[in-house]
């Protein structure tokens, strides 16, 4: 698992548990389906069955897999649509800092790409790191923060 925020808490335990499950056993996924990931070292696209849940993208060899091949913790990542050299729109996942890797995915068609982009953005935003949420709260005008 690649993690941009290595805080060890319950959420990490849950995602580790989920990665040991078959894809259809993950309850209430936010998005699921086939995605192709660009493997930059070999310059090829590999197909995975993917499940998005709580800011984590689980990658499976197929829908019949018994457990995930791996997953990406997407906290802090930004999601955008980019056009690479072959004129196809892809989903770019950019890390919060340069020590982490940028990922490229594409779905079966443009409609699916847009569905994944919306789901990824929503899932990541739900899981703003706690320190960011506290900072946002502290930066509000005083009258907004009174109980």
From TrEMBL:
InterPro entries found in the cross-reference section: PH-like_dom_sf, PH_domain
Annotated PH domain residues: 28-125
PROSITE patterns associated with the record: PH_DOMAIN (PS50003)
Pfam families assigned: PH
Superkingdom in the source lineage: Eukaryota
Name of the protein in its database record: PH domain-containing protein
Provenance organism: Monodelphis domestica (Gray short-tailed opossum)
Lineage: Eukaryota, Metazoa, Chordata, Craniata, Vertebrata
